[in-house]
Amino acid sequence: MTLKGAFLAASALVSVTATALSAEVLTIATVNNGDMVRMQKLTDDFTAKTGHEVNWVTLEENTLRTRVTTDITTKGGAFDIMTIGMYETPIWGANGWLVPLDDLSADYDADDILPAMRQGLSHDGTLYAAPFYGESSMIMYRTDLMQEAGLEMPKAPTWEFIREAAAAMTDREKDINGICLRGKAGWGEGGAFITVTANSFGARWFDENWTPQFDQPEWEEALTFFVDMMNNYGPPGYATNGFNENLSLFQQGKCGMWIDATVAASFVTNPDDSTVADKVGFALAPNKEGVEKRANWLWAWALAIPAGTQKEEAAKQFIEWATSKEYIELVAANEGWANVPPGARQSLYDNPEYQKVPFAQMTLDSILAADPNDPTVDPVPYVGVQFVAIPEFAGIATDVSQEFSAVYAGQQTVAEALEKAQALTLDAMEAAGY
Fold first, then answer.
1. Higher pLDDT, 19 or 80
2. Which of 59, 37, 229 shows the shortest CA–CA distance to 132?
3. First-to-final CA distance of the chain
């Protein structure tokens, strides 16, 4: 071997050894949604590029929220990266619980993140979590069943039309429910859906003085409408159905309509998983006739680094990899453009290939239609569409959602649930000093 060859070989050995010595094992908590499952399958690409390995802790949504909240508040240190959203990020960032993401590389192009997502994941202009995907909510419906019913879905339907269509498409003998909606307890599960439904009926969580509003007629109308429609045209046991349960029902052909996260579009149109993949249409989330607000939310599942981690540099490398333009192209190459994580980057919606995806424009329109700074018909003191951006909300809304799920299960009346919701919210807000 020549002297030059020996030097190069030695240099390569030193490089490999250095990489091995600096390699980390990152523990990441995430939700068991389809896009995150896809990410886990592609993690070998990250390991090949960086040397870092990943230990995944994949949890059901309600469980994930509990685990990461407990870990961050107690400084448990169980995770190097957490999957959180627009509710937690600004609050935890303000508390100093998260590592700022203000020094990501120029190639990452943080300015490409959609403004709605960037703003919702920042505190005082500093980004504290990077969006893996962004979403609003919209209507996904069976075009064949709508046609058989002699109806045509408007681009922006009312709740009155949705109820009419649900009645027309319900066929109990064929196990087809006219509509599938979340009833599962949890502030981010059924709680999120009934909140945006209430928004679209003119209701709100609090008035401008932080007084709970569950004793107002708009809440009674919204909850009564929801319960009546679901009891008549929804699936049995809808009180325990969340995102994944309804996704499964729709993919099996058991739902005429499903109103839920825009991110579900890629799963209901995937012929490998959905029996109705070629029979799905999309429309904006509904509003009550005469009310300007629609029942759509704004959310991002995002990756954040808890302060105090000993693996900050490696964690930032993972976040850059998982939320980058290059990751989107990696998914497109492996799964097709319809299956890339949506709603996070403007460049995706500027891409001619993605513009061919049938739900791309409706997803973007839905995201742009949700305004967390103006979520309700009447003025409110809070920010957030399907949540109220105060630390106390998660606990209060989880309790309220449990009362509502008890109505869906036939265990109490609408009036009883609203009375309890008003009382427990009032007590909690007074105890918190509002």
1. 80
2. 37
3. 77
In a shared domain, residues 279 and 381: yes
Question: Is the per-residue pLDDT at 192 higher than 60?
Answer: yes
On whether residue 92 sits in a domain, the answer given is yes
Residue 426 to residues 97, 212, 396, 415: CA-CA distances in angstroms?
Answer: 28, 6, 10, 17
Is the same domain home to 146 and 261?
A: yes
CA angle 139, 143, 145 (to 5 degrees): 105
Beta bridge partners of 171: 176
Residues 6+ apart with CB under 8 A from 72: 82, 92, 97, 306
Q: How far apart are CA 299 and CA 133, in angstroms?
A: 9
pLDDT tens digits, residue range 243-263? 999 999 999 999 999 999 999
Which among 250, 259, 243 is positioned nearest to 157, based on CA atoms?
259
Same domain, 210 and 322: no
Instruction: Say how far apart CA 384 and CA 374 lie, in whole Å.
Output: 8
Sheet with strand 130-135: strands edge to edge: 53-59, 25-31, 81-84, 299-304, 130-135
**Chain segment 53-73, per-residue pLDDT in tens:** 999 999 999 999 999 999 999
Residue type, 114: L
Cα torsion through 151, 155, 157, 162, rounded to 10? 50
**Total structural domains in the chain?**
2
- Tokens (6 digits) for 190: 């059924």
Determine, yes or no, domain membership for 324: yes
